[in-house]
Design a protein that fits this description.
Two copies of one chain form a homodimer. Chain A has about 325 residues and is of the alpha/beta class. Chain A has three domains: about 45 residues, 434 Repressor (Amino-terminal Domain) (Orthogonal Bundle); about 120 residues, Response regulator (Rossmann fold); about 130 residues, Rossmann fold (3-Layer(aba) Sandwich). In chain A, the strands form two sheets. A six-stranded parallel sheet of chain A has the order 2-1-3-4-5-11, with helices on both faces. In chain A, strand 9, helix 12 and strand 10 form a beta-alpha-beta unit. Chains A and B meet through helix 4, helix 5, strand 2, helix 6 and helix 11 of A and helix 4, helix 5, strand 2, helix 6 and helix 11 of B. Chain A binds a DNA duplex (30 and 30 nucleotides) through helix 2 and helix 4.
Chain lengths: ~325, ~325
DNA sequence: GACAGATTGGCAAACGTTTGCCAATGTCAC
DNA sequence: GTGACATTGGCAAACGTTTGCCAATCTGTC
């Protein structure tokens, strides 16, 4: 609980519409209208006088007063599953930049993948009268259903809306999986494996199933492919555990698709412990491809998801929705290399 | 610019003090007082009736109205230099959790280390009437000076207030550097180096100078130690570039202190390219020690900074300041391993 | 000179909250 | 019965903004 006896108060934003109005010798309403660009409601002379006064006293509209009146703040909520994941941090960073550019302020919430916390945040953000929601890897929850039903402006990122439709920014996960399948086949790999979280997002699932589907198309039997699903929250651990199962015995794969960088890190660690060298003994391809890889994991080949571009797309999506235009989904192109 | 013709409006928080007041048959003021815990202003019967009504209609105070009246919102601004850095992401994540716990909402701003942007954000946050500021690796700027002068509640993290005093959460950087110096000496290392950013923060400087000072204490001449200062924003690149200078020639060091993980990543990459193996050919110790290291950089030994604990300390600091208590600095203990 | 119509600008209410002040009622002692 | 005093609760203003509506002035035409 915040202390009730706060000795410090923010410097009162001593310059308000009233200050400007007084200086320009007009009423508050006139200033408000001019500040909001409604120029036709005043004579050019008045407009000039008001703008001069605005400049002179350094007036900046108070977002709180405005929010109260308009019933909507300049805040946009980003509700992310796990900030500690570098991919999410990059998304957060680029979104923040794009929002600022558009005149909004980002509020960041980390749900740690927990539905109750997600709902708590959704409620809190609604109370803050946020203008929109950015849901990064949202989990199913009652509050999320309500949100969908309320038609509030929301953009889902990475994971589609678990319960229904909604604007989406991400990549073509199935195609990404398929690309890796083609790559492995064309390289003459014979023993394939795919590692993914058992309780994963739509994204994880689609990547794995796109991979398997393409293999099937090209004549591989499902049984020929090792599928290692891992439990738990940490992709690192999932990868490590999967490695424990995959790398033992004589039928170790010679090529593995890991649906995320972190799973690949875990796999590599276990591979090292088993005396296997990647990529020499077993090729490893992940889908993520954060820039850090080239520094700390040069052994990892990746489908590179352009997370740094997400922010711009997300904000473009929000803006479309705000003006009532439809925004289905935006799948960004990936580089494979 | 946000569209002016927004078709969607947040569901009006249809339940306000007035709703509760009507249902309980009392005035708005009474409800307000009771909701704020001022129980003595009403008879037990009234209190009960009001609380029942609050429950029944599901009343939640509107933070915007409250902020406008109080001149202070429940928002706390975190102004960080670079979210893409995993250490900062961890700090952001833990701070966010601690703030939520305390009933606050975190607004995240990424300055990309640019003073103008930092000032823009400081101004914007002031306009939002935030309750406090968390400045992670703040850079010197006019706005920051103003902030210090205004005595606004602020906690500096990692880097001390570049212009003056202020609450600080971090580690004992000089001691960390000294620890590494002792370690190298005790391990019998003979050719030492330290790599740091030329235009670094107080933290980087202190780590390097703590290292050098301890070496001096123990009889090493400054000239005997390779000091590689790097330019630029990216620590990865700084490390890589420093490696280019350090690893060539015959007098390569057998032990290096890197003041951050990322510099160490860059160093390692360059070492590999030079055919050197870490830690066999050259021991590398960094100060940071993010958990990711054990997965992707097992070759790296680190002073581990407990970033995940920062959030709690930061919020504790803010709360002390809010209630007028002094909060100088809090140096967290590090693990070396 | 009068009237229609456009132009210009102010009044006041409203958003949801907090809080100083006052009014009404109750309690007690004399 | 009267006065002092505590208890209980409401009125109304204020925070900074937006906006519907009305009033005043101006422009032009007959």
């Amino acid at each position: 609980m915040p202390s009730d006896q706060t000795p410090w108060r923010p410097i009162p934003e001593d310059v308000s519409l009233a200050t400007v109005a007084a200086r320009a010798g007009v009423s508050v309403s006139t200033v408000s209208r001019i500040v909001n660009g409604e120029m036709r409601r005043a004579s050019p002379a008045t407009v000039a006088r008001v703008l001069e006064a605005v400049e002179a006293v350094g007036y900046r509209p108070n977002p709180v007063g405005r929010a109260l009146k308009r019933g909507q703040s300049q805040l946009v909520a980003m509700i992310a599953a796990n900030l500690d994941n570098p991919a999410m941090a990059t998304i957060a960073s680029s979104t923040e930049a794009a929002l600022r550019e558009a005149g909004y302020v980002m509020v960041l919430c980390d749900t740690h993948d927990r539905p109750e916390l997600q709902d708590e945040y959704l409620e809190a953000m609604r109370a803050q009268m946020v203008s929109g929601y950015v849901l990064v890897a949202a989990v199913p929850s009652p509050g999320l259903s309500e949100l969908s039903a309320s038609r509030a402006p929301a953009v889902f990122v990475n994971r589609r809306n678990p319960g229904g439709s909604g604007a989406f920014v991400g990549i073509d996960d199935r195609a990404a999986g398929a690309t890796v399948a083609d790559y492995f086949i064309d390289r003459g790999r014979r023993a394939l494996a795919v590692v993914f979280p058992r309780l994963g997002s739509s994204a994880s699932r689609d990547r794995a199933s796109g991979f398997l589907a393409r293999l099937r198309e090209r004549g591989w039997a499902d049984e020929a492919i090792i599928q290692a699903a891992g439990d738990g929250r940490s992709h690192l651990q999932i990868g490590y555990d999967a490695g424990s199962r995959i790398f033992v015995g004589s039928d170790a794969p010679d090529a593995i698709l890991s649906v995320s960088d972190q799973i690949a890190y875990g796999l590599n660690r276990r591979a090292l412990e088993c005396g296997l060298k990647i990529p020499d003994d077993c090729e490893l391809v992940s889908i993520d491809g954060t820039p850090l890889n080239q520094w700390v994991a040069p052994w990892l080949k990746s489908i590179e998801i352009p997370y740094a571009l997400y922010g711009a797309e997300i904000v473009a999506g929000l803006q479309l929705i705000w003006r009532g235009a439809p925004f289905g989904e935006r799948l960004l192109p990936c580089k494979f290399g």
